[in-house]
């Protein structure tokens, strides 16, 4: 009888049709891939390990629809930053040409950051635009977004007001970001 304490459902699009170099010689359609993953998730019966904890930096990822074209991500705010303790939800849309085109990612949780729109949640990150490579993964995108939270780039801002505050009054920026973290991201 199959009674594990926890199940790791590990899957990748690199075995599916349309990937430039199918690994393992598989010729699985995306629909079949989604079906098999759903079956594994049902077999796991809620005992899945679907988050990564790397030095207290948590990343979670879950599909919104059966076809895996829309995902919801969650990243924890990096320690020793104004975002520490916050849980930030992101919307991730996988384009038809993935992995050749980057996923479209935006924050659903409001955040005060120079490289993220405080209004729309849009993200200014080079790997989501010109520096994308087909070898990158959604996980690496989420890790890069966490790194951006830890190291803002105010000289390449998306939100000019936040960037101005960061440059002119760093302490006020930190207090405002921490306040938004408490209100919107559930930090205590």
TrEMBL record:
CDD domains linked to this entry: UBCc_UBE2K (cd23800)
Superkingdom to which the source organism belongs: Eukaryota
Transmembrane segments: none
Entry keyword ATP-binding: yes
SUPFAM superfamilies, per database record: UBC-like (SSF54495)
Segments forming domain UBC core: 31-186
Catalytic-site annotation from UniProt: 124 (glycyl thioester intermediate)
Pfam families: Hist_deacetyl, UQ_con
Family: Belongs to the ubiquitin-conjugating enzyme family.
Name of this protein: UBC core domain-containing protein
Species of provenance: Artemia franciscana
Lineage, top ranks: Eukaryota, Metazoa, Ecdysozoa, Arthropoda, Crustacea
């Amino acid at each position: 009888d199959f009674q594990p304490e926890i199940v790791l459902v590990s899957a990748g699009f690199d075995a599916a049709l349309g990937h430039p170099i199918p690994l393992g010689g598989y010729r699985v359609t995306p629909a079949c891939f989604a079906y098999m993953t759903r079956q594994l998730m049902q077999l796991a019966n809620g005992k899945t390990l679907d988050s990564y904890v790397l030095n207290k930096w948590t990343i979670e990822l879950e599909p919104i629809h059966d076809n895996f074209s829309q995902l919801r991500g969650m990243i924890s705010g990096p320690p020793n930053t104004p975002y520490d303790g916050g849980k930030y939800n992101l919307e991730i849309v996988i384009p038809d040409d993935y992995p050749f085109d980057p996923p479209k990612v935006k924050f659903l949780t409001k955040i005060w950051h120079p490289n993220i729109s405080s209004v729309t949640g849009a993200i200014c990150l080079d790997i989501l635009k010109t520096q994308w490579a087909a070898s990158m993964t959604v996980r690496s995108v989420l890790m890069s977004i966490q790194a951006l939270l830890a190291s803002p780039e105010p000289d390449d801002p998306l939100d000019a007001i936040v960037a101005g505050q960061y440059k002119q009054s760093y302490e006020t920026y930190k207090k405002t970001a921490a306040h938004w973290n408490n209100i919107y991201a559930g930090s205590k």
